[in-house]
Amino acid sequence: MEFKNTLAFAQNLDQQDGLKHYREQFHFPKVNGKEVIYFTGNSLGLQPKLAKNYVDEIMADWAQLAVEGHFYAEKPWWDYHERLAEPLGRVVGARPEEVSVMNTLTVNLHLLMVSFYRPTATRFKILCEEKAFPSDQYMLQSQLRFHGLDPDEALVTVNKRKGEHFWRTEDILEKIEALGDELALVLMGGVNYYNGQVLEMAPITQAAKKAGAFVGWDLAHAVGNVSLQLHEWDVDFAAWCSYKYMNSGPGNASGIFVHERHLDREDIPRFEGWWGTKKETRFLMKPYFEPIATADAWQLSNPPILSLAPYLASLQLFEEVGMAALIQKRDLITAYLEFILTEVDKEVDSTFEIITPEDRGCQLSVFLHGEGRSLFEFLMKNGVITDWREPNVIRLAPAPFYCSFEDMYRFGQLLKKGIQSK
Fold first, then answer.
1. CA distance 312 to 297
2. So what's the pLDDT on residue 164?
């Protein structure tokens, strides 16, 4: 398709967009009385209007049924979380029994590492990407110290090549092979939060398994954004937050994946709690743990129903649309945004450098050479909600559920105005 940097062209793309009506299903903040151009779905997705209905349903059940809501609500609370497993499985490429929802992301990664990081005297090293998300770095370092290991020795990173802004798959595979029998765990971000790169998860997983290591993925920026086939790829475990592309609300519950070969096992090390024991005997108050034969065995406490309600509401939208349609629009709208950036770059006395490689979701990370934070502040004041990372990077994530092609055009005009008004 030959793009044009005109309002008419952008509006024509919107008219052809099969998902255009879903924009109306979300609440938009307003700046200066107008709906914002929202580029931060990679940090917090917009609120689906349906979410309030689901939360109100829980509140009504609580008011009218109190404790009996656990069993007699229209959606009983004691198995409420199970309703999320099947639609989430379709989003992440998993069987429903391999998926559960509980806690928050870093908590779940810690819990999963109890099962999947089991260092020995010879096999104890963890491999992650250079400058992983800080929470992952803290989590990995603290796990190593907990096991009496020195993070400087046991935590190995794959670095980007000098002068490049992305990782090369061959470098990751070479590092896995070099570590060999010392490698206990590969745990990386499936989509990098900073540059938006989608790592080649399938071959990386395959190489790690060949080396005899467990493989886990932090999918915070991947779920609801890119195509995932966790079961088929033979991933051991994964976890993700739900409030970015999944639009479930701030700080909301995390999803987990545990491959079916690890399920229904009593011998696997795991921190255990009441809600992970078999439903059939849970209320017999037995003194010993009998794991549920699904990923729910990793649950500790009864789930936070008020948090799960908006997640379930968002998943209804994912069920209606499907990941294939979202990815199709994602690719087109991100390509159009890239085109707009290139066109604006030709018209102004600045240089934009897109550091996101072709292996990407809907995020473009852009170096604004010659520009400072004042440009970011101009955009924010004029209704463009974007994200700033030092020293001069803005992250732009045109989420396909609710961003329009006209948004991309209008952003380009505001970007040009902000530079020219200095």
1. 21
2. 95
4-12 contact pairs (CB < 8 A, 24+): 5/339, 5/340, 5/343, 5/344, 5/409, 5/412, 6/409, 7/406, 7/409, 9/409, 10/336, 10/404, 10/405, 10/406, 10/408, 10/409, 11/405, 11/406
- Which single residue is written with the structure tokens 């629009």? 329
Among 3.30.420.10, 3.40.1000.70, 3.90.1150.10, 1.20.120.1770, what is the CATH number of 7-35+322-420?
Answer: 3.90.1150.10
Distance between CA 9 and CA 23 in Å, rounded?
A: 19
Angstrom distance (rounded) from CA 120 to CA 203: 25
pLDDT digits (tens, 9 = 90+) for 310-357: 999 999 999 999 999 999 999 999 999 999 999 999 998 777 899 999
Sign of the Cα pseudo-torsion (248, 252, 258, 263, in order): negative
As a whole number, mean pLDDT of residues 203-210 equals 98
SS3 at position 371? coil
> Quick one: which of 356, 367, 378, 364 has its CA closest to 422?
378
Residue 312: its pLDDT value, please?
Answer: 98
The pLDDT of residue 254 is 97
